[in-house]
Specification:
There is one protein chain. By secondary structure, this protein is of the alpha/beta class. It has two domains: 95 residues, Enolase-like, domain 1 (2-Layer Sandwich); 219 residues, Enolase-like C-terminal domain (TIM Barrel, Alpha-Beta Barrel). The chain is built from twelve helices and twelve strands. The protein has a seven-stranded parallel β-sheet with strand order 5-6-7-8-9-10-11. A three-stranded antiparallel β-sheet has the order 1-2-3, sandwiched between helices. A two-stranded antiparallel ribbon has the order 4-12. The chain starts with a helix and ends with a helix. Bound molecules: ligand 164 and magnesium ion. It is an enzyme of class 4 (lyase).
């Protein structure tokens, strides 16, 4: 693959495109694809979802470049606690998935188009049943609700879950998040209001959330996230962008470097893919993931190599984003 000169100048000497089928449909995608870049500090991942345009994806490239060219911040912990992530699936499957990786916290996706509140409630009941009374259950609505819908749905789901740890991005607009937060006792986490906002700190200033979800790639890298977390002054949950183990290890590096880490992180997502690029795969055990840079195994990179057409699309995308970085 052609490496743009601005990247070559920074020491990027290898680029490889990959594509890995998902175990279950998540975020309306069934395949996770992206690029791995190799530079002076090691391998890094550049994998913006296809619904991100060039300008937005340029932040993902800055993150990958920083990770491939500079050392990661010093870790304050050796492992990081993670939640299990439950996609919008029927209760029987949700019950089974809740046990994967031994997590004591689950994040349950809700409010997908065409899925009823009763179905979301049944999924939460199944997860509670599988994990027991001591587990923490959180939901993620991905900004699907209006203020009124959130105010109606959240108490129902809170009851079904036997208590929610927090609700992630119930509404899209800051005013609605703030109003829901004021009206209900359930803590509110901001995700899209951080990762897709022009100003990721506005949600904190507006007192529209109790905590922030941070994803390394969309926010432009581990160090940028650390700076934002300090400025926001709110607790942070580090979450993945469904990366391979290479990209996940950058999220783990952020979680390991944050001064406070009061919540389990959404980094246990390698099990949503049918394979990983690192060996052993970055699967949680006892609800924990180990800290440390992970390089791809050559035979796995080969096994999951993107086809000719997809590789060409990534080459084009890399060139477009590099021109903006
Ligand atoms: O936070 C987790 O438990 C896993 C990551 C996760 O849910 C997401 C990863 C990538 C894209 C998102 O739609 C989704 C999220 O909204 O948090
Ligand atoms: Mg989210």
């Amino acid at each position: 693959m052609h490496i743009p000169s601005v990247l070559r100048e920074r020491g990027i000497d290898r680029v490889a495109a990959f594509s890995i089928p998902m175990t279950t449909r998540f975020r309306r995608i069934t395949e996770r694809d992206g690029l791995l870049l190799h530079g002076p500090a090691g391998w890094a991942e550049f994998s913006p979802f296809w619904d991100y345009g060039t300008a937005e994806s340029a932040a993902w490239l800055r993150a990958a470049l920083a990770d491939a060219t500079a050392a990661r911040p010093a870790p304050l912990r050796e492992e990081v606690e993670v939640n299990v992530t439950i996609p919008v699936v029927p209760p029987v499957l949700a019950h089974r998935l809740a046990a994967v990786g031994g997590a004591r916290t689950a994040k349950v996706k809700v409010a997908d188009p065409g899925v009823s509140l009763a179905e979301d409630a049944a999924r939460l009941e199944a997860v509670r049943d599988a994990m027991g009374p001591a587990a923490r259950l959180r939901i993620d609505a991905n900004a699907a609700w209006t203020r009124e819908e959130a105010l109606a749905a959240l108490p129902v789901l809170d009851r079904a879950a036997g208590g929610l740890e927090y609700a992630e991005q119930p509404c899209a607009e800051l005013e609605d998040l703030a109003a829901v937060r004021r009206a209900l006792e359930i803590p509110i986490a901001a995700d899209e209001s951080v990762r897709r906002a022009e100003d990721p700190l506005r949600v904190a200033r507006a007192e529209a959330a109790d905590l922030l979800v941070m994803k390394v790639q969309p926010l432009g890298g581990v160090q940028r996230c650390l700076d934002l977390a300090e400025q926001a002054g709110l607790p942070v949950v580090v979450s993945s962008a469904l990366e391979s183990g290479v990209g996940l290890s950058a999220g783990i590096a952020l979680a390991a470097a944050l001064p406070e880490l009061p919540y389990a992180c959404g980094l246990g997502t390698a099990t949503l893919l049918t394979g990983d690029l690192v060996e052993p795969p970055l699967y949680a055990s006892g609800g924990m993931l180990p800290v440390g840079r992970r390089d791809p195994a050559p035979e796995l990179l080969e096994r999951h190599a993107a086809g000719v057409e997809l590789t060409a699309r990534w080459e084009e995308r890399l060139a477009a984003c590099a021109a903006q970085s």
